[in-house]
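Give me structure tokens for this 633-residue protein.
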Amino acid sequence: MSAAHGSWPSPLTSADLAAAGVRIDGARFAADGIWWSESVPQERGRMRVLRTAPDGTVHEVLPAPWGARSRVHEYGGGAWTVADDGTLFFVDGDDQRVRRWDPEAVAPVPLTPSGAQYGGLRLQQGRLFAVREDLRPDPHVRAIVEIPVDGSAAEDDGAVRVIVSHGGFYAHPALSPDGSRLAYVLWPDTRMPWDAALACVVDLASGADGAIPSRAALQPEWVSDDELLFADDATGRWNLHRARIGAQPAPPIPTPLATREDFSRADADTGGGLWVLGQRWFRILDDGRILAVRTNGSDSLVLLDRDGALLRELDVPFDADLSLEDARGSRVLVTGQGRRVTPGLWELDVDAGTVRAIRAGDAVDPAWVPGARPVTFAGPHGPVHAFDHAPANPGVRAEAGALPPYIVQVHGGPTAHATGAQASWITAFTSRGIGVLEVNYGGSTGYGRAYRERLDGQWGVVDVDDVLAAAQGLADAGIADPARIAIRGGSAGGWTVLSALVRGGVFAAGIDRYGVVDLRLLAEETHDFERYYLDGLVGPLPEAEQTYIDRSPLTHADRIDVPVLILQGADDAVVPPSQSEAIRDALAARGVRHEYLLFPGEGHGFRRAETIIAAAEAELRFLGEVFGFDPAP
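Here you go.
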């Protein structure tokens, strides 16, 4: 059949999008099974923990009303872990206390008192370590702590052992094999972890603490009692480094595990933006070999020998947002997604060459999801990388001579990146005849430090220039209808949406999901983790106050003359509702067509099924009204 773009009948409903919006937070081998945590959108985004039994059946081990969710640094991560005997340790999503749930017990018991919040849990040699954040005092206090697993600290803050608390932010506690030292990552509270983070080691007996010279360290792991492996981007790409930890006070000098040419046939990163706790970019296997994620736009997996020489690249179906969650022998648990598979959890055997989907991770039909096409556009600051998801529907052909409408998608962060992975929300548009272009503007990760640092001091300039160049490139190539290109983004992506609409001339509509509109207001209201983020992206206050004013979309709201849909979580602590309401009021005052939807109970990002459904339906209806098509039911 022939139909107008945007009106193609699609099998994907908004309820399907809600069901597909499962988030996985970690996976482990334990108690003769595989354990993982996943969100339940139908239960307000509750994070439950499940496990496989030896017979292959799946059992829920953290049932409602319990949920494992950390709020450390607001983005959380590492909210649970499990012992080999099946004892579960988790951060309660409601009160942020750490609890222990013993096998056969009917309820969990608390291990920490009320007040502080915890994340990045790591159980090693029977000892439970965590990142603790206490927002009650002023200034706020953060630390790496050891939590007694016997419950003796349940009502006593003083019984939780503080390992290090120098000020700043912490991640990745790792205990040495002999139990004498703890490695961790530390960065100052005035910087972001991808700008300045140190790999550190503390002697647990003496308290002597030292830092390894590093630039943006990630994930220290012990190879032996005196050798540490970690990722750092001192060469402009995150790669693996080795450090020998001696008894002397002099700091160890790290060395690259292997030359870049040995590690990879192309420039690539083993590492990324440390937004959530617990992500793992490499795993040391039992025999000393190393499995590592390699990112250059998309992800791949490489197997290295002990010295870092490349043994082979693995043939796997997943190629985006990969995290190596756990390893036993030659088996590795991998979470992520890909261009030809749904998001999921897989068990990979690096020797047998087998891949088994544990949760989701299903192959998609190439007739509906042909796979994103990597594209590059010329921009005023250099090449602009992107992924093109063209409209695809095997039962429909486009009207003769018609070009499709397109959505230019802007990722958040802004220190993050789009991977080109299959996503149900993208297929919901492409199956209806609407293309999606995911733009990795200057400042994105996945292409090296130099590409990332294009945005330093230039947020609101480089990102806007790049999305405009990408959209214009689509139109000039005859891929998109130049009169029907919309821009969509959330958080920092929402800022770029509104900033691009202020520029005008390219986009015919905008979808702003909890976006930044006023930099001075954001600097006053945002949470601690990102309090100084703007210093690097724009400039320090008060010296750069005029730049904050000049760059803010709210300052130039009178230049926005196209329809805007605004979606916002009522409980968002990262970008509070006051931001969205300010641009709403400015548009209303000028009579610019707009719609504002506020979702109670939602924070930064939507987790509830009813919110995901309402937002999806609003976006499709909005585009149909603006671009003149009738969406199929």
